[in-house]
Structure formats: C-alpha cells, structure tokens
Write a structure and sequence with these properties.
By secondary structure, this protein is of the alpha+beta class. It has one domain: Alpha-Beta Plaits, CATH 3.30.70. It has helices at 49-53, 69-83, and strands at residues 24-26, 31-33. The chain has a two-stranded antiparallel sheet. A hairpin with a 4-residue loop joins strand 1 and strand 2. The longest helix is centred in the last third of the chain and has 15 residues, at 69-83. The structure holds iron/sulfur cluster (2 copies). The site of one iron/sulfur cluster (SF4) has 14 residues, from loops.
Length: 84
C-alpha cells in the first residue's frame, strides 16, 4: 500500500527527510506522497518512517493504492534499479 497525507498535515517538515524513497514532497498546500515511489518503507525499514515521526498522525493507507507486500517489494526493486 502507498500511504496518503491528509489535510490534517501541519507542514511541520519532519517526514520529508525521513523517506528513503524521496516520495514525500511539498504540494500546493500540504505535503504529498507519490504513490509510485512509496513502498510503505518495504526494503528499507520495518515500518513506515513517515508515520513514526508525524506528530499529528495524518498519514493513513491510501485506499486508492492498496498493494500487497510482494508488489511493494517489486516497487522497491524498480526504484533501486532507477537509482543506478
Ligand atoms: Fe516514504 Fe516510507 Fe512514508 Fe512511503 S511509508 S512515504 S516510503 S517514508
Ligand atoms: Fe505533515 Fe505529518 Fe509530514 Fe508533518 S510529519 S509535514 S504533519 S505529514
């Protein structure tokens, strides 16, 4: 699953540098997660780093981008391949 930042976001800036996939960027009003880059931290960490640091708990699972672990793993491998 990719994750989603809701409009509860207070633009505190702490999640963006924590993302290992550079999936979090500032949008027009609040931070946004690119579902093509979010692996729910699969391949990097045991759990979503952005969720761990967010002080207002505004990062739920994106219901439009539900993916199983294997799909997230394949996304991780694709992103790693694109880096080289
Ligand atoms: Fe980035 Fe992980 Fe948060 Fe997805 S769950 S946006 S990969 S920090
Ligand atoms: Fe918004 Fe939470 Fe990220 Fe802070 S940590 S910028 S409140 S999503």
């Amino acid at each position: 699953m990719a994750l989603l930042i809701t409009d509860q976001c207070i633009n505190c800036d702490v999640c963006e540098p924590e993302c290992p996939n550079e999936a979090i960027t500032m949008g027009p009003e609040i931070y946004e997660i690119d579902p093509h880059k979010c692996t729910e931290c699969v391949g990097h960490f045991d759990g979503p780093q952005c969720v761990e640091v967010c002080p207002v708990e505004c990062i739920p699972i994106d219901p439009n981008h539900v993916e199983d672990r294997e799909t997230l793993w394949q996304k991780y491998l694709r992103l790693q391949a694109e880096k080289v």
